Amino acid sequence: MDRFNRDSHIVFFTGAGISAESGISTFRDPDGHWSKYDPMKLASPKGFRDDPELVLSWYASRRKTIIEAEPHAGHYTITQFQKLFPNSLVITQNVDGLHARAGNDPVWELHGNIHREKCNTCGQEGNSQAVEDGIHHCRCGGMLRPDVVWFGESLPFGLIEKSLATAGECDILFSIGTSTQIYPAAHLPFQALEHGAYTIEINIDKTPFSAHADLIVEDTAGNALPKLFEEFYAALS
Ligand code: BV8
Ligand code: ZN
Question: Does the predicted TM-score (pTM) go above 0.90?
Fold first, then answer.
């Protein structure tokens, strides 16, 4: 830890696992979303075209759970890290907005945000002009849908390039609560590693990145992050 100082650049790369202790389901855990539903039916453009009501009701129920959830100690500890290390940011795959609710800033959302809507046709931010069979429509006639990245859809313009550049220049990358299986996001920890960053993986399970990380913390995000913050704080004092 003592090779770092307050000017160190830190990236907190996170996935669904960091929200698990807030009561929000992950995707690939045994009780996760994909154990109950087919991702291609619920998180793909074809799935939405085939059955928009099914997809919209799934996102509505997820949004309800998320609104009732609270950030936990792990999310709040990242805010403490960002105060101690001003050059640090969150790059998340999560769409739940919990990082921002915990005061993390800046937060880059690679896969969008479940609380925003956009038009499936013209891409305009959601401004419902008409409702038909419970489906809101844009002034262009297109259907409104969650502003999240589905399988086969590209990430927000320029964001993965900016994130890869940042991961390639950081001093430390935390990879927290992600199965490291979804691309291009999953490139980030490997990009940091290849450019000499110190990499820390916090996960309750092994991932394709585990064999490469400098430090593996096999614990929950809510337990591990406060302990790691104490160690970094002590090393700086
Ligand atoms: C794209 C919607 C191209 C948002 C999701 C073959 C090879 C390589 C790539 C591909 C390929 N075939 C297809 C692809 C591309 C595809 C992909 O990667 N597929 C995979 C299956 C191989 N990627 C895409 O389609 C992406 N787009 O490539 O576009 C393109 C380019 C130009 C122009 C047009 C198109 C889009 C990917 C985004 C897909 N969207 N969902 C939503 O509703 O949320 S998928 C879903 O997976 C979410 O987005 C999520 O963010 C993402 C990653 O999941 P994780 O966050 O890692 O969650 P997971 O459940 O998997 O893991 C949780 C982890 O936490 C576990 O390890 C667990 O052990 C741990 N954990 C649990 N509890 C805790 C914990 N850890 C700590 N503490 C705890 N308490
Ligand atoms: Zn439109």
Answer: yes
